[in-house]
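FW: tagging you since you asked about this chain on Friday. Here's the raw sequence from the shared folder, copied in full. Didn't touch anything.
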Amino acid sequence: MTTTTTKSTTTRTRIMRMTLCAVACSGLAGIAGAELRCPDCAKNPNAPQITNVALAGGIAIPALDTYVEPKELSENVHKGLNWLAKHQLESGAWGQGDESTQMGNSMQHLAAKGNVADTCAALMALLRSGSTPSTGTYMENIAKGIDYVCSEIEASDEESLSVTSVKGTRVQGKIGPFIDTFMSANLLAEVNGRMGFDEGNERVAAALAKVVRKMEAHQQEDGRFAGGAWAGALGQAMAGRGLNKAAQFGAPVSRQALENANEYAQDQMDDNGRFAGDDNAGIELYSAATASSGLREAKNTNDQRRDELEEVAADESAPAEERAPAQEELAEFDQVDRALAACNDALASRMDDEGFIAGFGSNGGEEFLSYLAISENLVVDGGEQWTKWDGAMTRNLNKVQNPDGSWTGHHCITGRTFCTSMALAVLMADRTPIPPEGETNVVDKPELDAPETDAPEGEPDAGAGIQPEEPIFFPIDGPLYEVPTPAATGPRR
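HL: got it, structure written out here
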């Protein structure tokens, strides 16, 4: 069994890796259309990473610490990462890729049509490998992909929740029509201030702020967003994760929006400590993932602010109008801690329940996303529960990987891009970063009118007339590896 070592608090010191640009970036184009790396960094795959030195003409990119000592990247992971890199489109985007033969070919016109959600998923996996937009093996893939995502956000209107004109993808249909918006919040949060040069940082910050504004304006009081889907809870989980990640990485996020997201996560458990929810397609694993992600990210955000609030709450000389709100927030933090503890106790009791772990009964993108949410929760505390879970996930995912390095789902979300990206992120969950200290940005904002809730429900229509882009590399290497769907799973979804 693979083991991991949890880092003690005393060893969680930050090593500042300064990525220094050899050429100033001041001559780049305006922010909206700028390339996302300076030319020399783009051309030099061996751009130096210098530690513990003063900044000298470039932008510091602090290396984020991790909760456990990460394993070396396995051969399976390297194959998957290479598959992703080879299937990036010329635009910098990823399409949803080939689907399982069980799903037919009704969405083949979208296989090589770039979309935001699949692109964000792929980029999140490449970032977890250790590359950044300006350094590492996949820096060019990451920079081109972020450029595509920012361009789509910049072209979107200011009023709606959508950030893309591409409609009808499988991911939208299965976990929500606005999953592109939520995924972009997650991606841009983790590169906010970490692009490697000023123009890139400014462009990402502006795009992330626009996404957060859209989400705050359209979030309902119970934390939901309009637009139904088969397993909508997982889309809502990515929304809550995105809002928390944005705040953790320095983007201003409304306190009320975070509280609403936390409420939705807590509603995924009933009074008896079992996982339940209205949007989980009747599958407990999806509610468990939504609770795991929402509550853990809420705690991560809260923990970054707890010391400051405790100091205010304990200061007897502070005005009552300052102490009382601090005390109320701390009480809410404690409630999140209790809910997360109950969630993890429930997870521990189901760890050996094969029916629970199987989700729908066969692997789909929904299962891979659920495994990631639970992995990112359990890795924070490390220990036996994390080690057991991580070992089981690694064995399962290695076993079902296709010979060409990709993963394919076998119900609902079966596109190779999303499934491969999520599977890789699970295998690299031990690299989940600790939120940077001192950057969490939770603010009070004026209350907005309640959003309209008449967005289209169900699976959006596939976009008719969409012209697919030419992929950089798309032929399948070797035979398709299909895992038979058990008869007990019923008809395909």
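FW: The radius of gyration is 22 Å.
HL: agreed, and The first strand starts at residue 17 and ends at 19.
FW: great, closing this out.
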